[in-house]
Every structure is written in structure tokens, then in C-alpha cells.
Amino acid sequence: MKRRLQAALAALLFAAALPLAAPTWANSALKRAEQAYDRGDYVAAFEWYRRAADEGDPMAVTNLGVMYDFGIGVAEDDREAAKWYRRGAEQGDPIAQNYLGEFYEWGIGVEEDHVEAARWYRLSAEQGFARAQSNLGNLYQFGMGVREDAGEAMVWFLLAAAQGNGDAQYNLGYMYREGWGVEQSDEHALAWFRLAAQSGDRLGQHYLAGMALEGRGTDPDPAEAARWYRASAEQGYSKAQVELGKLYEVGRGLPQDRVAAYMWYSLAEAQGDRYAKALRPGLAEKLTAAEITEAEGRAGAWRSTFSAYGAGAE
Length: 314
Prior knowledge:
disordered C terminus
């Protein structure tokens, strides 16, 4: 896995880290770093954060890790990012602890080690950091670095979900949908998927769409399904792109548009989706050469826009 996060979120994550990692005091180096970052001078921001970190500022230490992690103002360097995250983590910063845990979970800049990942997630989660709580829940859900324990997973997911974490909300929905560790309930699943979808979680959006299409926990609503499949598809989720294409192909929940269907199949296939690869040739037989050219042009334009935000698929 190239990244725990889509690169499009790099600047957002960086900015989001500031208030959480902020110390009770500030020095001139830190202030200058923030000013440089705000005006888009990331090279200068990096240098000022480095000075602040050398003076022992914990916020600067973590943000240096983020800058190395995503190549903001400095060449991307996973090992350097890991070094700075470790330094911040050892100082007790929950954001650094979580990011270091993610590095261990995925083997980024360090050797993959799920036990270490769980240790750092727990330290962060116990300080109330929602993302770490969700990450720890995932480890318990699949028994990675810890014993598999649905009850423990749910505890951490609930804590994270209460803070609005979309990944945790999605996981709770999935547990209820499948009856994994809880009594199966389409109604509970639907409620959690909706919260996740509204939080912007693309998996939550995808599964909410599926529930709406199938009428699980609610009356069937193809139009609602199309809306949420689109939301997920536009975030690059290939499975949602396929489902949206299928709705366009037959005109279910939205007007029939085979050119749009071909576009979404093409986008999903480009990500290696086998279902899209199987569907696209059959649809191509129903289109003219001009329509195929138009669909491919739309797909190319969509990819260019998507790439401009630095996003990518799983």
C-alpha cells in the first residue's frame, strides 16, 4: 500500500495537526513556520519548523514528520518521517503516535510490525485521538498484532465514531450488516453507514448506496443509491464506479446514459477492477465509435481533475 492516506489530504492533515499538537507556549520559529506555510512557502516553513523542533517544540517535531511523509517543502522520505514521528511519539504526542503506528502497520519507513502498530495506536487512542481509536479497532477486528476480538473492536470503533470518525462509523455499519460480533441488524447498519457517508467516508457511501438499492433497513430507493454511489465513485472508489456505471447503463435511479456508464467502467477498469473489465466490452458493442471516443474523453478529463487533487484509489 503506497499510502495510509490519499495524497490529496496532505495539506489538510498538516493543517489539522496544528491545533491538536499545539503547545501551551509558542516561539518565534514556530510562528514563522506557520506564517510561511499559510502563504504557501513550504520550503521556508520546513526550515522554520526544523529550527523550532531543534528547540524542543513538540508541535514542530510532529509536523516535520508530516512534511517528510508527504513531501511538503522537502523531498518525500519515509525513513525521515518515521524518525520524526518516533521522536514526537516518544514525547507523548497522540498524532505522532498514531502516524508511527500507521507506519508500523503498513511497513512504511520501518519494518512492518503489527504488535508495534497496536502499541502506538493504543497510546494515542487512550489520549482520545479518534483516528488511532479507529485504527486500533481495525487491528482487533482482524486480529493483527492483537487477539481477534469483536467486542474490543466495537469499543474502540464506538469511541472514534462518537467523535465523528467516518472509518469507525463505516466499520460499525459493516459489523451490524454482517452480524459480526453483534446481532445482525440492517436498521443499525443503515444508520451507521449513513453517518459514515455524511462524514465523507467513501466506503460508507458505497455501502449506504447498496442498502438503498437493495431495500435493506429501508424502502428501495434507486435514486438515493445513485446519489451515494456517485459520491463514492467521485472519490475514486472503483467498486462504486462500477455500480454507478451499471445504473447509468440501464437507467435505474437516474436517466439512462450509456456514454456515462462506459466512462465509469473505464475508470474502474483502469484501477484493475475485474468486474468493470468484464462489463465494458459488452457495453462497447452498443455504442458508436463517436460515443466511445466521447466516453474516453470524459474519463480522461475526470482523471486529470482527480489527479489535480492528488487523490488515488486503494
